[in-house]
Amino acid sequence: MELTILGSGTLLSGEKRNPACYLLEQSSGFALLDCGPGCIRQLNVLGIDIMNINTIFISHFHLDHCADVLPLLMARYLRNPQANRGFKVAGPAGLVTWIKNISYLQNEWLFENRPEFIEIGKDGMMWDSVKVEVCRNLHPQPGNSYRFTDKHKFFYSADTGYYPPLINFAGNADTGLVECSLPDNEDKETHMTPSKAGKFAEQAKIKRLILTHLYPQNDLPDLADQVSAHYSGEVIAAADFMKFTLDEIQS
Question: What is the 3-state secondary structure (H, E, C) of 156-212?
């Protein structure tokens, strides 16, 4: 699998950081991991055809993580009215109610040949040959962290504070994409700081740590160094359009 950072920032970030969205690629096609506002634009910048995306995985229903779901589905429909048949939108408990509530003013473009909406349970699901599993995290919205496993393990924290049950879930991941929203002096229970992200990654024995969801006040040149004070592995502060091969680090 390959990971491309489409959005490493928040709604308050400047033009260099889009809100949360990430592109996963394997031989069978592309999936989006969160779909925040500006996601379609970022895909266009990279020349990624939205018709080659087959799944969206949503972590939670805050708009900075899901605002482009309906626009992307509509853009696919406008290209081909049949395009969303078989498309999957997967997410936490409440997904079906969420889509019902935001789509009641839509018309046939959504309701004919509608995609499949999947609330991922304890048994997870498959994305082609990749096993996808979720763990409830410490964000106030009902939200999931994700684990993707084929030959290697990729962990995505989504928005969460330091939460011990996630340590085992993320354990020994080859790559961890972990939020690092706020500086230590603005610590909140529902988000990671440099010290919390570093301690979490160290305890989970994540081999390579990519920091994302950076608020402006934590978007600092020495952010990776701050995290490295608590973590012995490789640390990278994400930037939009960075690309990673997820099997670069061997298990």
Answer: ECCCCCCCCHHHHHCCCCCEEEEECCCCHHHCCCCCCCHHHHHHHHHHHCCCEEEEE
